[in-house]
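Problem statement: downstream parser choked on a complex file, so we are re-checking the raw output for the flavin-adenine dinucleotide run. The parser issue turned out to be on our end (a line-ending mismatch), but while we're here, posting the original submission so the record is complete.
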Amino acid sequence: MKNEKIYDVLIVGAGPSGSNTAISFKNLDPNLNIGIIDKAIFPRDKSCGDAIGPGVINALKRFNNEHILDDEPQVISTSLFGPDDIGIQNYIPKVKNKDDSVVYVIPRYQLDNRIFNIAKELNVESYENTRFVKYENTEDENILRVEVQDSENQKTSIYTKLLVGADGANSRVRKSLNLKQNSDIHKAIAIRAYIDSPNYIDIFKERTLMFEINVSALKGYAWAFPSKGDLINIGIGMPLNLFKKDNMDINQMLYQFVNTLESKGVIVENIRMEKSYMLPFASSRPKLAHDKVALVGDAGSMINPMSGEGIFYGMEAGYLLAKETFTSLDGTDLNKNIKRYEKALNKRFGKHFLSCALARLVLQSPFMTKRLLKIASIDKNTINFVVELLFDEARLTLKETFLLSAKFILPFKTLRFFTKSPSFSL
Ligand SMILES: Cc1cc2nc3c(=O)[nH]c(=O)nc-3n(C[C@H](O)[C@H](O)[C@H](O)COP(=O)(O)OP(=O)(O)OC[C@H]3O[C@@H](n4cnc5c(N)ncnc54)[C@H](O)[C@@H]3O)c2cc1C
């Protein structure tokens, strides 16, 4: 180890969680030595719906990096469809904790590269085509040795004071900590594809995120998200336990959804780049804080169990980790502060994740989905709450649970009498 370079922080994985961890440390203290490794060469594709909402915009604004969204078209509404073709369209409400009520749909091939480039511009040292193999303690109790391997299987060592696992849903860092993957009930499987559609925006009257719940994806949802030009990201996602139990075929569901889009008049051309992947839900998070090691993003199971959104939570986790630890990388307080990171994350998102997990269970029933969409079509508060669960940090309080339960139980006519400001039914 003599004369070897020692990083203050070494991050495994240059996705949004890892890159934003690096960006946050460098902004909080530009003198820190930060390294980041990724097994891929960027730009690289990642199976995703490509939708980023107010949370990601805020995370970028924190260090003045929102310019990477310049020239991207804004999506301004959501259109939810359920069984029996019940549909409602709603503008993305002003969310409480964020400034912007818009969503962008940017292929991850571009988005991740832009965020990674911000880290590189801050002099974060990056090693692409470099795979994490394992780590171990050294004779210096403050320093870890990390073994990495290039594509020719050449192994080398990198030394660091803090190791961050930001290596996604199949995290090898998580495995080296002897932590199990999420069980099937706390995981989803999803497939993404791209299509070209010259008339998607005309059919839905505006740039809208389209969700179809419990139809093409029984007990899950299908999506169509408009990106730049004619490019549309489509996909299907559902809980893995139900997918396995009913022996389903995800490609077939995707093609069924294409038929649904066509039946609505959407022209679908050039279906391509179908790719499926796992989503570890935040309803079951592993221990994130370990001896000189922390997990962020999908590696630490941080995906919203209702919406499937994970980019925001991973980026925010990276910031929280940096904020809690950047002053203690040389001291004896490091482990204590890694634990403070885990506490801060749980405090901020614990109840929100739980509320989203409950909402997901309710929406697994086609009956409840129909009922919810019916209620939402006459009651703006309900649809706003659903959209806040999707795009903000809403949580179910006792009052909210009581009000929502009452709305589910009350006869529809009585409910209509008491409610105001209908959403726009499709
Ligand atoms: C089909 C689908 C649709 C989704 N839609 C959305 C959406 O619309 N919006 C949203 O916010 N979220 C969505 N998600 C979730 C989102 O994709 C993840 O939450 C997000 O990618 C997490 O970012 P990350 O940086 O933690 O991990 P990743 O983006 O997976 O990045 C991990 C990085 O680690 C690298 N890596 C892995 N193993 C190693 C190793 N051993 N050594 C070195 N490097 C390694 C990988 O190459 C990769 O670059 C979706 C997920 C799926 C599967």
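For whoever reads this later: The chain is about 35% helix and 25% strand.
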